Amino acid sequence: MDPVVLFFILGVIAKLAKSDLRLPDAMYEALSIYLLLAIGIKGGVELAQQPLATVLPQALAAMAMGAAIPFLLYPILHRLGRLPKADSASIAAHYGSVSVVTFAVALSYLIKQRIESESYMPLMVAVMEAPGIIAGIVLARRAMQGKASGAPVNSRWGQLAHEVVFGKSVLLLLGGLVIGTIAGPQGIEPIEPVFIGMFKGVLALFLLEMGLVAGARIGDLKRAGLFLIAFGIAAPLVLGVLGAVVGHLVGLSLGGTAIMATLAASASYIAAPTAMRIAVPEANPALSIGVALGVTFPFNITLGIPLYLQYARWITA
Amino acid sequence: MNEHPKKLLVIIVEAALEKALIRDARQFGAHGYTISEVRGGGDGGQREAAWEADRSIEMKVICDAAVAARLAEHVLQAYAPNYAVTMFTTDVGVFRPQKF
Hints:
By secondary structure, chain A is an all-alpha fold. Helices cover 80% and strands 0% of the residues of chain A. Chain A contains 13 helices and no strands. In chain A, helix 11 runs antiparallel to helix 13. Chain B is an alpha+beta fold and 100 residues long. Chain B contains 2 helices and 6 strands, in the order E-H-E-E-E-E-H-E. In chain B, the strands form 2 sheets. Chain B has a 4-stranded antiparallel beta sheet with strand order 2-5-1-6, with helices on one face. Chains A and B meet through helix 2, helix 10, helix 12 and helix 13 of A and helix 1 of B.
């Protein structure tokens, strides 16, 4: 097992054992900014050498997939899971969007397995962040028409778009991509020891923190019930297949297809919770965050990612 | 020095509401506000400020009693049904009444 995953498990154990371990808030913030920028820069350096004709259709396919996922999940959550409309839309949006840290763990797993992937994949993460969230909001608005919405005044579309596009995850990922593209390999060389050399160690520290956070959500699961726990494992398993098929169809390599499967299977916990809290206040955040962070995230980084690589092997064979 | 009576309205909410609350406070006639990040818990669970969606803020507004009442009523109506809201007022004395 990748040592970064062991850091995650250590964090979960610390939380469950009620340890007093707590990383300072500023540290969480600093680590997440570092990771987003580092991922962006790494992708940007290589992006400059890619023909737009290759990258553009792949990015569009990734966005379309992100937008489609909530529409697939909503009926399952609402009809099969008998969850309220607002909760169904909110949970669906979390899965339509993506988890940057799951992506980082997948990259590190592929490197350990010595499998190459398209180095511009961070672009896919950046473009897949928003479509799922927007689709989830559309679903919620459509489902709750007529019912007085408790959304605060700032949930107008323009402002929501601003929250998502200029929210720190998309801003830093895209910012890093642009910096990497402009600077190129030579320009990045002086900052390489920090942004590339230290990446794995910082990811490990961040996962320790994520273990603490995920461990704290386990209590939410009792309220979420069996259906949501099963959903948190079944959804990524099925969405991973979708991602692998899309990745293969748009011509990604074995590694790239495995990453696309991972992105499809991952659920957002940075951009989506904040956006959904503002846009769909009726939804109970304990349910969506509990299942995304308490079930799907741990599942993906431990068992999911090796499986998605297997999906990619089957489909490219 | 002369003390002038004012109301201190304290609103503790999820950090997602920060921008909306600042706008509301201005709109209802508050001249200023102070916001700090806080941690806490209640019947709905704990909020430990461990990551983005887990943050809470405390907003302090010193203003006239009428402004505090209008702002509080708006917060109760607009946010309390769906968000974790803790709110209270207390009487305070200020030295420069024109500032509040």
